[in-house]
Amino acid sequence: MDRKTYITIFILIILPIISILYKLNVADLSLLPVAVDDTVNLQVVISPKENVAISEVVFPIPKQFVQAKVLKSNTKTDDLDFRVQKKQYGHLGIWEGEDWNSPIGYYAKIKMLPYENKDPEPEIPTPPKKTVTKEPYYLSLKQFSTDELSLAKKLYEQIHPYDKDNVASAKQIYYFISEEIINSYKDISLSETIRLNSGNAYTQALLFSLLCRMRGIQARTVAGFDLSKQTEKDNKNKITFWNEVRFHGKWYFVSTYKSIFASSVTGYLPLWKSVEEKRNLGEDPVTFRYTAYITKSNVNRYNFKEYSEEIASSNSFLRYYSLYSLPTPLQNLFRLVILIPIGALVLSIARNMIGIPTFGIFTPILLAMFFYETNLWFGIGFFLLMIALGFFERFALDKFYLLAVPRLSILLTITVLTLILFSIINEEISIFNQMSVTLFPIVITTIFVERFSIMIIEEGVMHTMVTLLGTLVIALISYMIFFFGSLQILFFTHPELLLIVIAIQILLGLYKGYRISELFRFREIFKS
After folding, report:
1. How far is the C-alpha of 292 from the C-alpha of 265, rounded, in Å?
2. Euclidean distance between CA atoms 188 and 179, whole angstroms
3. What SS3 string covers 132-182?
4. Where in this chain does the record put each 7 transmembrane helices usually fused to an inactive transglutaminase domain (predicted)?
5. In sequence order, which ranges of 398-459 are alpha helices (DSSP H)?
6. Residue 106: predicted pLDDT
């Protein structure tokens, strides 16, 4: 390489580094948007116990709460009648029928959000207005038995939280339960918890709700899943319980069992927000068993909104030239387009360094975009089918001695008809999930099949099949790069890194050595 080439490569590499250092140290921007890992897959399997005949199964199913946004859900009914009982504080799934002998349940994809309210200000209770006659639901004591109320009243007098404001009173109740009530895993009643000073998460949560309501503080017992309690081996989880207490019109998270009061917490998935009796949830260990599986959803999500606001609030000139200043549709487009040079770099290495043959220069990258925009298995299946159809169409039309443009038009028509047929069949029997139809199949396959047919005639079947295999390999590698979320966000946030890609391409363009495939091809010559 001459001196000019060295200088050019050095400049192309050093400029992105200087730009990123400027963003971090001068503009005071973050390197990347904050990663968001808050989507989970919840699967609940309910199975009957042996020699138990029941006609109805009741179990809580996900509802849209502030902390849980249901993105997708479906149920398994096994020929049972299914209905949903919807209430303000939760949804119950009800399965009804006879001869229930196989598992039922549901699946849901849920976006989890944290409990954000924390550190409530002191709240002095205000006397109710004379016009208000109905007692607030979360102050009601009707759900508790006479024995529970009698024992709780004695405990309440012992704690005496009535000489403080509501927040301080709730804290006093919380500290008493979390410090004086011993954590237990045993199935125990609320009365026994008060008598024995020992209780599980459920009875401790009930006791906190009861004592707060006696003080005039709105509180409720919540049932749901604590992701920190699930086993790493099989992702199993069990329903647990905590509280929500209301101050200044906001609900705050409380768990006496885990010693948390009015803090910002994550990893809690609520199902039912008014639990006074376990049987209301359908939990009945005598008749059936349930198993809940919770796994992190395989998504790459980042907080783009927060990063956009960070750039907009910066005093740097970059706020006018960042890709984050573009409209959302354009941002989504560029997140894919910006990785095309990376795919071209892979193609250059494969062709110039390894010696993998491909159809054309950019055909593998276009195929990768085709797979990305539709569905990988649909893309490969449709692509191979069109190659087969195009191959036979070519030889069938050769008998008519047609010109090139009419022949390509016929091939284009066959491609459209095949795509229509694929879509109709997939709609009926759902062979390919999340399949979307774009113009890429029509454009790419029409041009590719004609090129494929010509190559078979000119260079033979074996060489054409090797080239086809090489094209698919590079397309699959590029497809995986398009799904590499961290790489996509890195280049989208710092598009100047593409200058480094150009520098590498210059080095590849100057390479005049042997390809790896040639070392095997001419190994006999090298030996001699």
Report:
1. 22
2. 18
3. CCCCCHHHCCCCCCHHHHHHHHHHHHHHCHHHCCHHHHHHHHHHHHHHHCE
4. 309-525
5. 404-429, 440-459
6. 93
